[in-house]
Amino acid sequence: MRFRKALVLATPAWLFAQAELPKAPGRETVRKVCGNCHEIETVIASRRTKLGWQQITDDMISRGAEGTDDEMAAVVGYLTAQFGKINVNSAAPTELQNGLQLSEKEARAIIGYREQNGKIKSFEELQRVPGIDPEKLRQKRSLVAFSQ
Amino acid sequence: MTSYRYAFAVAALSAAAYAQSDWPTFGHDLGGTRYSTIKQIDTKNVNRLVRAWTYHMSAANTARVAPTAPAAGSSEAGDAAEGGRRRGGPGGRGGGGRMGNSEVSPLVIDGVMYLTTGAGRVVALEPETAKELWSFDVKDGAPATRGLEFWAGDKQSPATVFFGTSSGKLYALNAKTGKPIPGFGNEGIVDMKPGALNGLENSSFGLSSPPIVYKSVVITGAHVQEGPSIGSAGDTRAWDVHTGKLLWTFHSVPRPGEAGHDTWRGDDWKNRSGTNVWGIFTIDAERGILYMPFGEPTTDYWGGDRPGANLFGTSLVAVDALTGKLKWYFQVVHHDTWDYDLCAPPILFDVKQKGKTIPAVGQLTKSGYVYILNRVTGEPIYGVEERKVPVEDALPGDQAWPTQPIPLKPPALARTAFKRDEIAAVTPELQKFCTELFDSIPGGLHAIGPFTHYSTTPSVIFPSSIGGGNWNPPSFDPNLGYLFVNTMDFGSLNTMVKSADGSRYSRSGYNGINRFWEPESQMPCNQPPWGRLFAINVNTGEIAWQSTLGITDSLPAEKQNTGRPNIGGSLATAGGLVFIGATDDSRFRAFDSKTGKELWVSKIDAGAHSAPITFQGKDGKQYVVITATGGGFLGDRSHADTVIAYALP
Questions:
Q1: Are residues B315 and B421 in the same domain?
Q2: Shared-domain flag, residues B98 and B203
Q3: Contacts of A38 in chain B (CB under 8 A)
Q4: A60 and A35 assigned to the same domain
Q5: Looking only at Cα atoms, what is the longest distance across chain A?
Q6: Per residue in B122-172, pLDDT tens?
Q7: pLDDT for residue B39
């Protein structure tokens, strides 16, 4: 039950989904391009990495989403910034720090680990990286990706 | 050619052995049997199949013939997943720009292969080599992702390729030259938007699936919105093959005086969107009946502004193909609020019982059931019961329908309920994640069958909103009387949220997840199987066999045989084989149609969320062809731009 509390506190997607899309550059473009065929809440039901958002946007274009290349880039940019995930196997130190709220030392520990051991395959492995606080990371689990 | 095709469709349906080397329409024949009598590749030699060619959709005007691939049943493309990753840069679509996914089934007629691509082009290929014969750039929107239709032509018009676009255009190209046919619509293009937009200029309207041609009419469905409620009509329309003139319109939301209008309250029907055939049509060529699998009305998870059964939402509807006049309908989900759109092709076959032959149609559904109906009358052949379903859990303001039609046979082909002790124990990590996730869900368990309502507290629902089954084209072996269908055992994890203005609810996820799975490993939280292929004996309604479909690569070998989430369809051949991709494990497989044993598997460039075809080339060889581009609603991370052909060496 401790987990339950932690998870909800960490990223209450089901709570913030009731609010408006966060105000940030690209919001109106997302409304215009994505909101024409389905509701915005559907779009943000899942978090994705930048590549994941790119892929789903390409898919939506083949299904009828209309917009210029600049608009599509704005959609991917907004969704990645607001509803993104951090690929711990490719993220730069600042991305790890900002995205997962890690210290510079922790971010460097992850990068050092993956350089030495290859790709991190699971959340459990990530939690075992020396110098990482597993409990702190646990609260960010929904923001962590291992590929794409 | 028209009479030939007609003859063939009848022949295939009556299970007569008819030599046939082409693949002339989406479902092979108008009845959508996806059955070929070619039997060069059979159960004995299928493990010797090798890749004959690989066509790259985004590479203009170049044929790429792969060297004859190595070992039997091999993973010759094992390294191609990374190398095949290809993403269009800026510069728009067409001519090698942005490469979207493709779900296309190519056609092969008289020595030419035709297909729409995910790269904005429609192409004709030499089917033995994939060399481009012509290529047509679609400048305005994307050509329909599931493909196109061929018409043999007549004295008045040349052989024609018809396809729709995401921007609502219907194109007619000369099949020989790839040039638009001047006499059809406006220089080869009919703008289908007028008459569909309900006066709402910014409303979305397009085609994602192929039209279907019967005699001198070309029939189109609609790809329209899931929300908001008001938008483009999902009507089915028929056009003159020569001129593109509109011949008839079937109102998918019945208007005053039309059958089914009384299933709507007041003016709720007006400008209602959804209720569309975004999937695949079939036709009984002998009887001239068109079968239309309709999706649900808008919005997809909230019906508070549309109390009533809402015909022809989530209904199979049969009309006269030449006039659009209603013959019968069968509503599969009353007042649908689950996005359980009908979309799979209503496949036609004969049921044989005690010396009697019953003309039948089979409809796979997202809710996991297959409905087998008399295709002339619409009567269920194995019985359907209106069963009580939960109403107390409906969202405030939404009047849930108290019963739903459940077929007595065959049984549900996908998991329709879930208990906590069925959490996947595949790995300790998965079990831990899923248990904690499940126990953290504020609404707790809310999975009391396929008609459990989506709720304002996060809930787990089986099957998921993408199935069960999806648009998966089934196949049918007339010799065995077996219908082959693939499904997934997969759940949704959703929360309904109130809109800012308080007027409606819409669906969102829970904690950044909207499937009941571990999103990084993409392993579902229910015990396997996660994907299955079934053979249904249509003469008894029973399951003849079932097999897991797909493997989880990240698991140790002895645990890999889990089945995988899958969208796409199958092909059955007289060689005793069922070919299928569909899974998110980037593989193409062949099963023994009699026993369900997996006989052959090939690793391919990306997931094949499409349905395979077969044909016999001018060189006498049988080819099996599958489109593999990854992506799609399964979150398949693979990506490629390939169409792949296999043959015996």
A1: no
A2: yes
A3: 225-227, 300
A4: yes
A5: 47
A6: 999 999 999 999 999 998 889 999 999 999 999 999 999 999 999 999 999
A7: 97
Closest of B357, B382, B411 to residue B540, by C-alpha: B382
Contact yes or no for A45 and B508 at CB 8 A: yes
Tokens 């062809």, residue? B625
Please say if the pLDDT value at position B649 is more than 70.
yes
Indicate the burial class of B389 (C-beta count within 10 angstroms; 0-12, 13-18, 19 or more): buried
User: Among the three residues A83, A98, A117, which one is the final residue of a domain in this structure?
Assistant: A83
Backbone phi and psi for residue B12, each to the nearest 5 degrees, phi listed first: -65, -40
* pLDDT-based confidence at residue B5 (cuts at 50, 70, 90): very low
- Yes or no, beta carbons of A41 and B433 under 8 Å apart: no
Overall average pLDDT of the A19-29 stretch: 85
Angle value at C-alpha B101, between B98 and B102, nearest 5 degrees? 120
Distance CA B140, CA B171 (A): 11
Q: Which of B5-14, B290-299, B414-423 has the lowest mean pLDDT?
A: B5-14
Q: Which of B611, B538, B534 is nearest to B571 (CA)?
A: B611
Task: Name the domain count of chain A.
Answer: 2
Q: Do A13 and B508 touch (CB under 8 A)?
A: yes
Q: Are A78 and A32 in contact (CB under 8 A)?
A: no
Q: Closest partner residue to A46 among B99, B513, B637, by Cβ?
A: B513
Q: Are residues A94 and A73 in the same domain?
A: no
Q: Look up the domain containing A111 and give its range.
A: 86-145
The verdict on B210 and B122 lying in the same domain is: yes
- How many separate domains does chain B show? 2
Task: For residues B407-421, give the mean pLDDT.
Answer: 94
Q: Does B116 touch chain A (CB under 8 A)?
A: no
Query: Which residue from A minimizes the CA distance to B499?
Result: A18
User: Chain A interface, mutation test: which of B93, B511, B629, most A Cβ atoms within 10 Å?
Assistant: B511
Q: Kindly report the nearest CA distance between residue A72 and chain B, in angstroms.
A: 10
Judged by a CB distance cut-off of 8 A, whether residue B93 touches chain A is yes
Asked if residue A10 and residue A40 are part of one domain, the reply reads: yes
Same-domain pairing of A99 and A133: yes
Question: B511, A7: Cβ pair inside 8 Å?
Answer: yes
Locate the chain B residue with the closest alpha carbon to A87: B520
Pairs across A and B, CB distance < 8 A: 158
- Asked if B237 is an interface residue toward chain A (Cβ–Cβ < 8 A), one would say no
Mean pLDDT value across chain B:
90
Average pLDDT over residues A111-123: 94
- Based on the domain organization, do A43 and A93 belong to the same domain? no
Co-location of B608 and B473 in the same domain:
yes
**Residue of chain A whose alpha carbon sits nearest to that of B457:** A14
B576 Cβ under 8 Å from any chain A Cβ: no
Strand A86-87 relative to strand A144-145: parallel, antiparallel, unpaired? Answer: parallel
The reply to whether B379 and B455 lie within a common domain is: no
Q: Is B552 on the interface with A (CB under 8 A)?
A: no
Q: What is the CATH number of the domain that holds B164?
A: 2.140.10.10
Structural domain including B432 reads 417-461+492-525
pTM of this prediction? 0.90
H helix or E strand, kind and range, residue B162: strand B160-164
pLDDT in the model for residue B227: 85
Q: Confirm or reject contact between B436 and chain A (CB < 8 A).
A: yes
| Residue A100, H or E segment | helix A93-100
Q: Flag if A123 and B228 touch (Cβ within 8 Å).
A: no
